Structure formats: C-alpha cells, structure tokens
Structures
1.
Amino acid sequence: MRRPCRHLLAAAVLAATLAACGDSTDPDDDPLPDNAATAVGLTVRDNVEASLDAFFPARLLQPLSTGAANDPCVTPTSAGDGDGDGVPDDATYNFTAPPCRYTGVRGFSLDVVGQLRIVDPAPETAGFGADVSLVGLRFSLSAEDSDLEYDVTRNGTVTLTGTPAGLEQAVDLQVVRSFTGLSDASVEHVWTVGFDPEETLQINQPLPSGSVTVAGTVAWNRGSEAFNLTITTATPLHYDADCEASGQRFDDGELRVAGTFGETPGYVRITWDSCGEDPDIGFVADE
C-alpha cells in the first residue's frame, strides 16, 4: 500500500490552456500542430481528476473540493433521501455564480453555472449507486492573465455502481473546452472509471485513499482535427484522501491516450507523481 501525502475528493470540473500556472506541460515539447497532444492531455486530465467527485456524490456540489461537502452553494429542488445514504431520491441543482464562485482553484477563480441532477436508483435501500445527469454544466476559470482563461462545458451522464469493496462509473460526456487563440474543442468521453479502495467503503462517508483506473474512448474534434482515441491505464492512479490540494489529488499513476493524430500515430502520456502538482503531459510517437 502506498503512503499518502494527506486530505479529500472531487467530480464535475476541469481546466487548462497551453501554458498556464495550472498547466505544467511545456507545449514546446509538443510535436503536433496547434499543440494538439497537449490540448488532448489537458482535457483528459481535467475530466479524470473531476471524476473523483462522482464517486461520492455530495462532492459534486463542491467542485474540486472547494468547500465542505455539507456546505453547498446551491439548494436542491428536493431534499428527500429516504434511505439516508447521502444520494438524494431525485434532486436537481441549478448552479449560478455567485454564489457558486471560488478562488484559489489551481491558480484560477472558478465560476460554476448550469444544471446537475442526482437520482438514487434504489431510493428505499441504502447503497452506493447514483445516476447523475449534467446539462450545460459550465466551469469558467479566470486569471489575472486573460490568455490563461478557459471554459469547460459538460453535458451527459455518469452512472455510479458499487459495493463496500469498490466502485465503478460508466461515463458518457460531451465536453466543449475553449483554448485561447484556437477553436473550441468538442470531445466525447465514453469510458469506465474504477475505484479500488485501500479501506472498506462506508455508506455516506468520503472516499478513503485508493486506486483509480480508466478505460474507454475519446472522440476529439477541434477545427480540422478529428481524432478517435483510446484511453488506457498504464499505471493505476493513486488517490490520496489526505491531500489538501484543490483539484489535483493523485500522487502517482499514468494514463495513455492513443491513436492517430492527423498523420502521426502515437499516444499522449499523462503522468502524476505528487499530491497538489499537475501531471506531466507528453507525446510519444510510434516507432
């Protein structure tokens, strides 16, 4: 078992621009036109890191651990939770900014607007399941340097299932992400995200430390770019429940996003190695 670095979890959020204080990747190392490999890596990075919140639905109301899970910025249309498992029977949350405005998120200010619906698939039996729908859920990240700013908008579904031994998400999201000076990217993520805990899971309790794996497809479109990619887990991502960072709580692991990028086959490698630090993103061409 890995020794963690130390504190909590996150889900419907994301980030990036090609050289921001929140982006450690150097686009000068990107061999593809318009830094396409870097852009793919940043978009995947953000969605994977945000997926942590969907494992503990109360955290969906406080993106990237921006506040206490019991102090959300938005009121549900219905507060019913008949089985007391922390998943509402059927609640819709309409975010506006303010009050859903946060500072100090990966060096940015974050505004959250749009709609989130959370449904308990078995409202009379306590468990780990949840059906989550996102409608125009937009994260706008602003900074003193306007060239670093960007928006991410998500539509789609996340279906959570699990037992005390582990959790799994079935994800089908349509993501639109802006890039300064370039066309917006339209990206479809169809993948599964698994969580293997280091301790037995408890209903209505935050996640303990554990390992995350991702597998599926990434359909990327931006301007003339159209890439059909496959995402795999080279090394499971280690989630550190004691990491106090906002946004980045993996301290180990590697994902690969592979395919043909225009005329160049290869894969984008995303490598995490420290709590609170952005991962390295690089492109590896097939030999």
2.
Amino acid sequence: MYKLTSRKYKSEDSIFEIAGRKIGGGDFAVIAGPCSVESEAQILSIAQSVKNAGAAFLRGGAFKARTSPYDFEGLGLDGLELLELARKRTGLPIVSEILSEAHLELFAECVDILQVGARNMQNFALLRRVGELGKPVLLKRGLSATIDELLLSAEHIMAGGAEQVILCERGIRTFEPATRNTLDLSAVPVIKNKSHLPVFVDPSHATGCADLVAPLALAAAACGADGLIIEVHDEPEAALCDGTQSLKPEAFAELMRRVERVREAARL
C-alpha cells in the first residue's frame, strides 16, 4: 500500500535536523504558539514565553481553515511577516499551515515546517506540490482518517520529493461529545510499528479544552511520541481562534517541566 513511509523501506527510525533542532530518534521536540497570529505584540510575547519554557519551534496560523465563513480566518500575508519577525527576535523556527497551492512559493521562503491540516490530509494535489518543495512537512491526521490513510497521504508527500515528514495524531471524530475530538493515543505505537517517520501528538485540538491538554500531553510523552504541538495564548479568553483549548504561558511552562519528568521516568 505504501512504500517510502514503511518500515520495510527503512527499518530504523528517521531522525531529522530542522533549523538546528533534532526530531525523532529519542529527541523530544515541542511546537508551541497561538492558533492564530493576531498582532505583533501578541506573537512576540508568546514566542518569547514558549522559548523560555523550552519549546523548540513556534507555531502560528497566518491562514486559517474555519468551519464557519464568518469566523476569523487569519491575517494572511501580514501574519507570515509577523511570524518571520518572531523568528528573527527569538531564533525559533516557525511552523504554519498551508491551505492553498497559490501560497507554495511564499511558504517555501518563509516557513521552516509546512503544516498540512486535518482537512487537507487527502488533498492529494496539494500534498504532491508540497512534497515537491522538499521542505519539512507536518501532516495531521484527518478527522475520520484511518492510520493507513494517514500513511498513504504521507506517501504522496514523499513521492513528491520531501524526505522530512512528521506525522501528527490530533484526535479523530467519534460518537463521544465530551471532547472536541477523541485522541487516539494508540496511533502512536501503531504508526511506529508500521513507519519510520516521527509521530507528534496535538492534545489541544484533540480535546478543545485547556484543562485536558496537560494529562493527554503527559500520556503522549509516556507512550512514545516524538513531540507535541501545544496551543499557547497570553489571553485565551480574548483569543480570536480556539481560546478555550489554549494554555497560558505559565501553564505551558509547568507542563514542559512535567513532560520532562515523565520522559525521565519512561527511560528507567
């Protein structure tokens, strides 16, 4: 079914070095930042906070795919410029979601890791074009996608030419309404059995609730994930996008300390 993503193609874990940061092979990387870039003051403040707490990469949405056409859809090009400014000020490489083939060249110049979101996981034309850029890609599992479908989507990216693909479990849609999605932590060891690619977990989008982010982040660290992607906002109650699932900087810093303790225990 799939070749380039398979353990049969490459038996050992892939280890990527991206902007001086290692992903995979025992290294644990955290991507953190706001769901959406809202202003210069906001992104610079959060970027410095997550860096101080130990995050390796800064996430921020410049273009946002929203269920409602009336919700905030990002600052667009201005958002990318602010992310570049935050990278310049803090040194953190940036991760941002690409929605359109029209923005390929722009993202190739500005973004260190291109994120393909859950809604675009099977946008095969976009996947192939993103792969042709040869840049690192973070691919999120679709809302109702199987693990094999996720791996086949990664195959499209790698067949396009990209070698550094990070898979991300971000919760799937089930009958359970208690959380925004149902986080499938079993996906981490299942994927690792099938594929050599690194696996991240996004507890923010999985739960939709800030109070649930920490326990699931800790569980992800314990079950062998290679990293986390966490939403952080200095004023979640005033956020233009996904404030209910965003941690305040001080809560994120505490979570980072707890994650390290869990990883130390898991190594015993």
3.
Amino acid sequence: MLILATETSCDETSAAVLQVEHGQFNLLSNIVSSQIKIHAKFGGVVPEVAARMQMETILPVIDESLIAANLKLKDIDYLAVTFGPGLITSLTVGVETAKALAFALKKPLIATNHLVGHLFANFLPNKKISDIKFPALGLIVSGGHTILVNIKNESTYKIIGETLDDAVGEAFDKVAKILNLGYPGGPVVSKIAATGNPYAFQFPRPMAASKDFNFSFSGLKTAVLYTVENIKKNKGGVVGFLHEDCLSEASSAEKNSATPPNLINNICASFQKACVDVLTQKTITALKKFHPKSFLLGGGVAANPALRTRLQEQINKNFPDIKIFIPELRFTGDNAAMIAAAAYFQTKNKTQLTKLKNNYKKLKAEPNLSL
C-alpha cells in the first residue's frame, strides 16, 4: 500500500509517501517547505502570507516527494490530507489540492486529523505497526495545543485534559518575545535555558496541584513578564530576584559561582523548568489513573530536550512496564509523514473505505477540529 499525504495546517507545506507492507511502515519521502524566515520578521505566523506561499509551493512539494520516492501519481493507492485543526486559509490550500487530485486520479481520499498525526509520528520512520501497544496515553504539546489523550486503540481517542488558555508552545513564543529573542521562541528559549540556572527564579506551576488533568500557562508567562519588568526597573539588579529557597536543589557550583550566570539564561531555564514540571506531573498522574501499555509524546514542543529527558526519567522510574515512544526530532514539527501514518489506520475500516472513494465531493477544512 502506498499513501501520498499532504500537510498545510499552519505555515509549513509538506508532502510524504509512506509504504505499508507486511505490517511495517516504510517512509519513502517526507518533504517539508518551511516559512520560518518569512514569518520571523513579523514575530509570528501571518495567515494570509502563509496560505499564499502554500499555494505557490504545494504542487512542487508533492512533485518532489514523488521524485524522492521514485514513484508517479498513478502508483499511489490512497491520498491523505490534513483537514483540521489549523488555520482555515492554510488548511483550505491542502484540502482543495487533495480533492482535485482525488477527482482527477479517481483515488480514495483520507481526511486526517492533525492532532492524531502528531501522536502517530511515533510510528516513523520504519516501525512495525505492532510496536505500539494499546491502550496508550498521549501528550500533545505544540504552539496551538497542550492535550492529554487517553487512546483506547488506533481509532478511539478521548481528551482527558487540555490547556484552559495558552498552549505551552505559545507560552514559549511569548516569553521569547518578552525577552526579545525572536521567533520561533521554543528552540531559542530551550537553547539559552541549557546554560542557565533553572532554580534562579521561583516561577509558578499553574494548576500543578489541581485534581484534573487540565493545564494553564498564561499565568506563568505573566510571571516572567513581571519579573523582567522588575529587573528593568531596578536597572538589572540581581538582589531581590534570586530566590534562595529555590536554589536548594542547585549544584554548589551554581550557588557559589563568583560570576552569576546571565539573567536571561536563568529566566529561560527557570521558565522552562516550570513548564516541564507541570507537564511531567500531570502526565505521571494520568499514567497512575489509566494504566496504559504505552506513552506517546507528540507536537513541536516534543523537540524540547529537557521535556524529553524528564518524561523518560520519571516514567521509567514510576512505570517501568510502560513502553515510551518519543518521535525523532524531524517528526516533531508539522510534516506530512505523520499524516500518512495516521491515515493508514482509516484504511483498515471497510465501511470507511467505501466512503473514502467519494470523499472529495464533500470534504471541507475544519479549523476547530478536535479529537
């Protein structure tokens, strides 16, 4: 089976070809055209600009994915496309392109949920389908979503917790903006945090002690803002902003350093630690309640080294029998390969297959799509 998938939910334009044979995934190509440099000067994604660029690149990206896979359109068995959630203008580019191909080629079209794609990025690039055991618990962390998902099987999902305001990736971007670090904020904050003291500032852990699995990162972002404003007001003075009670877990070298680490590095490290603490604590609590066989991490923030390390350490420590799946870095961002992986499981439903043959006639982009 050969699946050609496209992904245009935000500012990336991607196409991929996935081969499924003898119970194994084999990724033949995964082309991603990024717009980061274009949107960086605006400090964030401009929807109209993103969609216009995708209109220019979608067909060349599809052609490139086929060339990389050494295939032609006629060789493809199924088409797949992200139809939500995401930016309506960007989604429409991908959906309408896929519909046109499905009509012209008379191929079944699989409408795929972007969020499911992030979870099933863990099957890539060449895993056996049987590797991931269900039920599973999924954590999706990105610029637009922070969600804990109870996954009964490949096609049954239930959200058990989500952010009530900012997504964690959005919080990273806003903190980067506060510190004038540029866009996108996640990678740069993570890089700077690696050389900072994560115990320097006592930032809050919003909803860490709540009895549910929901998240909140708006207050944490605001705490960073107030800290920066206070530091500026005091002309950069350190006294009054370093919290000794928070330094108890820091190394003696960090505590006794003759030259205090850079304030921005410390702010980034302390902010990142607060985010990782909350995400890990909620995940561990959910694992205790639902007792899954597997844990799946997905989304752009899944590339964060501190989060990846902390989750692995804590899950291994508390649940040695749970198999942990963390996607390769190249599959954490938006990409079509994950859409192809998620689409495959819809082909296993014979009733669904009949509907797919005429999917191009009624399929529409759904920007607010949930699981």
